[in-house]
Each structure stands twice: as structure tokens, then as C-alpha cells.
Amino acid sequence: MKCLKYLFLVITFSLVLMFSINVQANLFVKQSNERANDTTQLSNYEKNIMEKYNIDIDKSTERKNKYKLLWRKNIPNKPVYLTSVDSLYSQDFLTRYYYGKDSSYLYGIPYNAVEEEAVHNKEDNNNYIFYKLAKNTNMPYSAWVLNYGTVFEQSMPKATYEKMLATITNAKLDKTLQKGAYIAARHFVDGNTSEDSLAEDYQDAIYQNIRVDNYGQKIINPNADAYSKRQFQLLNNRKIRYITYFKRMFQHQIKDLNTCGNKVGIYAYPSSSALYGRIVLFYIHK
After folding, report:
1. Could you give the angle at the alpha carbon of 276 between the alpha carbons of 200 and 54, nearest 5°?
2. Does the first or last residue of the chain, that is N or C, have fewer Cβ atoms within 10 Å of its Cβ?
3. Distance (Å, rounded) from C-alpha 141 to C-alpha 143?
4. How does strand 95-98 pair with strand 150-151?
5. If residue 218 lies in a helix (H) or strand (E), which one and from where to where?
6. Is the pLDDT reported for residue 99 higher than 90?
7. Phi, psi (degrees; rounded to nearest 5) at 19
């Protein structure tokens, strides 16, 4: 009788174990199917976007669950341009719009930032800032972009710019030429203007703001050579101040500006930008 009781317990335990394993296996298959569906089930609207704009669209529950919203606020229609961006996202991060090598198509085109938010990445335990771009003729959906790929007109404080230019002989900050520096900064992301498809639009924008065509521009590139890379490394490691970084880089890469009236415009990408360390100097040449 005692043996039968143990036998019954063993059989019962085995059945429960088999049922548990079967449930877990079914759950795993279901989750795998859900993940597969995330990346394959696209709406006709999304498929049309992929064909029209030559971009990839994918969905991922894992990406969506990776971020936690900390806060979100409305901001005025703030003009913004994009730099070094290969991906835009839906509001909940479930959908990713991936441009890859075609991302240059996004550059030099004005967008409006209408919302700002901070999210927490659970994987790397860091917080990130994103901006919502409003729909327009170039953006058929409301997409979110990480701030490292954005360029706003107000980059560094005016006082910082004045201190930077004080390190150059007879250089004074000029409000009008500031607009020229910003236009150059937002259009020529890689610093190469020779084959820019927006060159004509760029020149028109310059003339509308400056009203002259005898302008010059110099671009300080933190990746130009070994010395420049070393100075940028010191800046990132907070071994030198930004003013010192600018002074050294100007003397190394430019040395002099052939300015008319000593007036200069300047745009320095902020620390949140992928182009941090890059500086545009804009002036009217003699």
C-alpha cells in the first residue's frame, strides 16, 4: 500500500512537470511568433512609405519595452535641422524608420520640433532627450529623433561665442553674420560643400540674410589630424575648457581670417550633438 502511494506521487509529479514544460514551450513559441510578427506585419501605409522614401521600417516590442518615459512637454514650433541621423522612431519606440546610407536625404531640410521628452534606457541605465518632428511635405509621419542628431539656431550662449572670438585678433561677433554661420552649420553637415545638392538653396538663404555674396567660411574639424583629435579628446575628458580648445584649434587649422570690418559669425555644435567639436566661422572677406 505504501509503495502504491509513492508510485502515485511520482506519477502525479511527472504529469505536472510535463504539463509545465509544455506550457513553457508553447509560451516560448508564442513569444517568438510575436517577435517575428513585430518585424514582418506592416500596414499598407507603412509599405507605401518604404517604397516612396526608400527606407526600412521595422517593429520591435523589445525596443519599446527598453525605454521608460520620464517626462514630456510641448514646445513652440521650433525650427530644427538634422545631422548624422540614420533612424527616426514612433512615439512609443515600437516602430523604427531606418534610413542608413540614405540619411543624407534628411539633411538641410527644415522641420519643426513640437515636443520634447526625456526617456530612460533600462539597458544602459542612462537618460536621453528626444524631439518630436511635426509632419510636413518631407515627413509623412510624426517621428521622434534623438537630440544628438539635431541642430537648433541657439547652440552656445552669446557670452561663450564672444569669449571664443576674443582669442582671435580683431574679431567681433556680428548678429547678422551669426545667421550665416548657422545656415552653413545646418546645411553642410560633413563639411564638404563641393557636391551638396542643396548648394543653390544654401546660397539663396545666405543672400536673403546677408545680402552679399563675397562671404567666406572656415570649418574647424576635430577629426582633421592627430593633433586635432588629441585636443578634442582633452576637451571630452574635461582636461581643457572649450575656449582653450577653440584657441588651439584655430591656431592649428586656420591661423587667420581675411575679414572685412573684423565682423565674424560663429556656430559651435553643442555637447549633445554628434558633431560636437566642429565649429563654423563665417565672415565677409576683403
Report:
1. 50
2. N
3. 6
4. unpaired
5. strand 215-220
6. no
7. -65, -40
**How many residues would you count in the chain?**
286
The C-alpha cell 574679431 sits at 171
Report the number of secondary-structure helices (H) and strands (E) in the chain: 8, 12
CB-based burial label for 275 (10 Å; 0-12, 13-18, 19+): buried
| AA letter at 41 | Q
Where do the DSSP E strands lie in 32-110? 56-59, 67-82, 87-89, 95-98
Q: What nine digits make up the cell of 221?
A: 574639424
Select from 70, 152, 148, 146 the least CA-distant residue to 111: 152
What Å distances lie between residue 235 and 220, 248, 250, CA to CA? Answer: 14, 11, 15
- Cell 582653450, residue located: 244
Spell 41-50 as b/e; 16+ CB within 10 A means b.
Answer: eeeeebeebe
DSSP letter, residue 223: T
Distance CA 177, CA 284 (A): 8
